[in-house]
Each structure stands twice: as structure tokens, then as C-alpha cells.
Write a structure and sequence with these properties.
- It is a single chain.
- By secondary structure, this protein is α+β, with helices and mostly antiparallel strands.
- Helices cover 32% and strands 22% of the residues.
- It is built from six helices and four strands, in the order ββαββααααα.
- A four-stranded antiparallel sheet has the order 2-1-3-4, covered by helices on one side.
């Protein structure tokens, strides 16, 4: 098992008087990607907002790179390398899928990201659509492209 990047222990979240998350536990190591899957949009949104501290009271522990962050706001969480992206993918819609992946990644992290070939082996749909303008990709593939851009940039924050 690698270096722990994200550890959530017994997270409880309230929005107003509503106890929306109860006792969530999560562990992710460096290099792992975490996906939130739920039956409906509201459940996914509540989980992500609770994790990020967006408009909610939190109790429990949320540790990012061994830094306790349950008391931090969303901007401070971003400084630790945990970001929330809702409907916006951050891709340039007029550029092709591959052109988006080749854009300079100066703001993405400290370098050391995945090479293009490895991105294509992890996400073969992007290779199949490498010449397709991002605007013509289905929404799910636009989000996949957004994740691939982050992986290309080597998102490591300390």
C-alpha cells in the first residue's frame, strides 16, 4: 500500500438541521482515483460538498496528506490538492481531445504526470476520440478528458 493521500474517518455532515451524511469512511493512497457513485445527483452532491466543506457543518476527520482539514473551507482544501469541479470540465471546447491533453500544464501541480500513451491505455475512449473536438464529446467523456488533464499534470500538492 502506498502513501496515504486522503483519509476520511467517521465523517458526519449537516446542512442546516438535516444530518445528510452519517459516519463516512474513506481511504485513498497516492496515485489512486476516487469516484463517488450514488443513486441520484443530490446524494453525490451532498457527499462531495460534505467532503469539501461547502456550505455544511462537518464533524469527524478529513486528512489530506496527513493534514487535518475538517475545519478548513473549500479554498483551503484546494490548496491541499482536493478540488471540486461540478458541471464545468475545464477543457477547451474548440480544441480536439488530444490538443487539450497537450496544453501546457503549468497550474496543475508539481509535474511528474502521466505521459500521453499511458493516459490512452487507461482511458481508451480518449484515444478513439483524440481528433474529435471536445465540444462534440458526450458529457461523460468531457469529464473523462478533464480527469486525464489532471493526471497529465501530475497533481501533487504538499
Amino acid at each position: 500500500m502506498g502513501e496515504t493521500t486522503l483519509e476520511v474517518i467517521n465523517l458526519h455532515v449537516w446542512r442546516g438541521q438535516n444530518h445528510i451524511l452519517q459516519g463516512i469512511n474513506l481511504h485513498a493512497c497516492r496515485g489512486e482515483v476516487v469516484c463517488v457513485i450514488a443513486d441520484d445527483y443530490q446524494s453525490r452532491r451532498n457527499a462531495l460538498h460534505g467532503l469539501m466543506g461547502i456550505g455544511a457543518k462537518r464533524e469527524g476527520s478529513v486528512r489530506v496528506h496527513n493534514i487535518e482539514s475538517v475545519h478548513l473551507d473549500v479554498l483551503a482544501m484546494g490548496n491541499l490538492g482536493i478540488n471540486y469541479c461540478s458541471k464545468s470540465t475545464g477543457v477547451v471546447r474548440n480544441l480536439s481531445c488530444e490538443e487539450n491533453l497537450l496544453l501546457p500544464l503549468t497550474n496543475m501541480g508539481m509535474g511528474g504526470g502521466l505521459p500521453l500513451g499511458e493516459i490512452y491505455s487507461l482511458l481508451p475512449m480518449l484515444k478513439l476520440n483524440k481528433d474529435v473536438p471536445a465540444i462534440r464529446l458526450p458529457p461523460g467523456e468531457q469529464h473523462m478528458l478533464s480527469v486525464a488533464r489532471a493526471l497529465r499534470g501530475g497533481p501533487t500538492y504538499y
